[in-house]
Structure formats: C-alpha cells, structure tokens
Design a protein that fits this description.
The chain is of the alpha+beta class. The protein is about 35% helix and about 20% strand. The chain folds into two domains: about 15-105, no CATH class; about 125-210, Immunoglobulins (Immunoglobulin-like, Sandwich). The chain has five helices and eight strands; from the N terminus they run αααααββββββββ. It comes from Sphingobacterium alkalisoli.
C-alpha cells in the first residue's frame, strides 16, 4: 500500500479553491495539535499567515472586477502562496512519514490513493462563476472517474456557530454546464459537491464561495 502524503502542487486549483484551502490550512496549522506535531514549519507560521492573508485580500479585490493592476497583484500573491504551500507540504510529508492523523491535522489535501470499484473520490477543482444574467451562477468541477452522478449542495447563510446552512440540493450527471438561477445579487453563496457510483456516495468536497452578481 502506498504511503499517505499530502498534495504539494496546488497550481491547478482555481482562486476560489485556493482561497478556501489557504484559510483552512492556516487555521489548522495554528491549532495546538498541529503546533505539537510540526514545531518548526517551513514557512514559519507568521510567514504563512502573511502569505495567506495577503492572497485572500488581493483575491477578494480582484474578484470584484478589479483593474489590471489589482489582478496582477493578486497573481503575484498567488504565486508566493503556492510556493509557501509547496514548501509546507514537503515539510509535513517528511515529518509525518505517512502518519494519517498528523497529515490530516494540517488542513492540506491528501493525495488520492488508487482505487478499483470503490466509493468515488472527492470531486476536485470545484469552480463557480457568474452567469450571463444577474442571479445566475455556473458550477463546474473536474470529472470523477466512475461517477454516475453528482450531488451539489448550495448554502447562502452561516449560523451563529459558523456553520454553513445547506438549504438547496441539485443532482446532475455532468461535471460541467451546471447552473442555478434566481440567486440574490450581493449574497455570498457556498457550494460543495460529492459523487456517487454503484458502491455508494463519496465524501463532500471542500466548499467554495462566490458573491452572486
């Protein structure tokens, strides 16, 4: 069986996916369990915090139809974050040496193990984008091998405990060309997806978000 490890290259991920991942990794690495497991991370926690916060801030600015300068600044902060996450993943993989609990404590994504006739893998590269009209949102993802269909959950609010309220569900057989209508402009919507095949239903993806136009 192949040794467990986390992904080191997140460059194929969309800005929305990367922003969500970065915030999760920073929070996880600041937890006492992760600090005990990884006492000398590369990059250091204060450097990681700067990389993450700078990218998230630049991404939010650029996503509101930013100028060429703002988009360029976002891209530069993205590249710096990708380098930081790659270094962190290499450090984590070396220290954890395949120990699953340690890897999971970082918030980084595990490399998928090869499988045959098993539950479908978690859908990757979930992407949200504005539709052609106000209140419309397109939803795409990378196809999951062997998946029969996909369940898409949509939430438009967060409760007092900071949990997303999933109040709408869609079923689709396609990983592309999915869309929802009649969203409230200016509202931030969250989306997650899971795949299904003859063995059952896989795990949910990490949620991504988009402010409806």
């Amino acid at each position: 069986m192949r040794k467990e490890k986390v992904i080191s290259n997140y460059s194929p991920w969309s800005d929305y996916e990367l922003s969500t991942l970065a915030g999760r990794v920073l929070k996880a690495m600041q937890d006492t369990n992760a600090i005990a497991n990884f006492p000398t991370p590369n990059p250091a926690l204060d450097v990681l915090e700067t990389l993450v916060n700078n990218y998230i801030a630049q991404h939010e600015i650029a996503s509101r139809r930013g100028s060429a300068l703002e988009i360029s600044q976002k891209n530069e902060s993205r590249e710096a974050l990708l380098v930081g996450l790659r270094n962190l993943a290499h450090y984590v993989n070396e220290i954890a040496n395949g120990q699953l609990s340690m890897l999971l404590s970082t918030g980084l994504v595990l490399v998928a193990q090869p499988s045959s006739s098993q539950l479908p893998l978690v859908p990757q590269r979930l992407r949200l984008r504005d539709g052609r009209v106000s209140g419309m949102m397109h939803i795409d993802m990378t196809p999951v091998k062997g998946a029969w269909d996909y369940e898409i959950a949509i939430g438009g609010s967060i409760n007092e405990q900071g949990e997303i309220q999933w109040n709408q569900t869609l079923m689709t057989t396609s990983s592309r060309g999915n869309f929802v209508m009649e969203l409230t402009p200016g509202t931030q919507y969250y989306v997650r997806v899971r795949a299904r095949n003859g063995k059952g239903t896989g795990d949910w993806s990490e949620p991504v978000s988009l402010i409806a136009r």
